[in-house]
């Protein structure tokens, strides 16, 4: 037969409510004040505390007719209970925020030029509204973003003019509007032209991004063809900074989103096109697997864009 010390107490009977009652009494050191704070009568509160002491087989309070004091065991339990209840409250609040789309982490794939446009201001605005939301960024081409979205390795994809040629299993939401501009050397004859017809560039050496599927480069190549010419490419580069460096030294002209004009490159002038050529940013997602925090971000974008 087991001795009493070896009998395992039924701790499953101790729930958060019981521990909360204990904490309030321990903080007030008065059953009457604790009962008032808990909006209950004193006798049931005393019974709950006695139930806790019986389950633990330990006296937690020293009671006299005039005072209530914690025993050493009660003081030790109070320290642990405060940590436990605070941690539980924080965890439950976090879960509630997740369920409301008000917290969580977003893994975002984006083209490099997106960081010069509306992406970072939109993320900053969202995190300011939803302090529990976090995000991380992976720079990926549109083709790799589509693959990552379909394999659920990212939550959102960000690239330009994504509404055209999007796979049927993906959806998109407008993130920010901007147009393509022409970047030329400050010494170039077109540098002082307020609005340059795209067809004018048929005779220019051009520095362009690669014409990969769904990429900005492919979009610009197609725009030139729609104006009746094939771009005469002198240099093909992957980064806007590389294109601007070549343009500054007179090795050609380039077409870039207007937000790239924020890169104050010496020796480069930016000119508007006579025919506006949109370079809008879109957030691309899988509507069947969208998480609450991503849905919250998309809802914010819809409110901002009015769509």
UniProtKB/TrEMBL annotation:
Q: Which domain of life is it from?
A: Bacteria
Question: Is Transcription regulation one of the keywords?
Answer: yes
Q: Which residues form the HTH lysR-type domain?
A: 14-71
Keyword list, A-Z: DNA-binding, Transcription, Transcription regulation
Q: Name one GO molecular function term.
A: DNA-binding transcription factor activity
**Would the keyword DNA-binding turn up in this protein's UniProt record?**
yes
User: What is one GO cellular-component annotation here?
Assistant: protein-DNA complex
| Family of the protein in this entry | Belongs to the LysR transcriptional regulatory family.
Q: Which NCBIfam families match?
A: PRK09986.1
- List the protein's name: DNA-binding transcriptional LysR family regulator
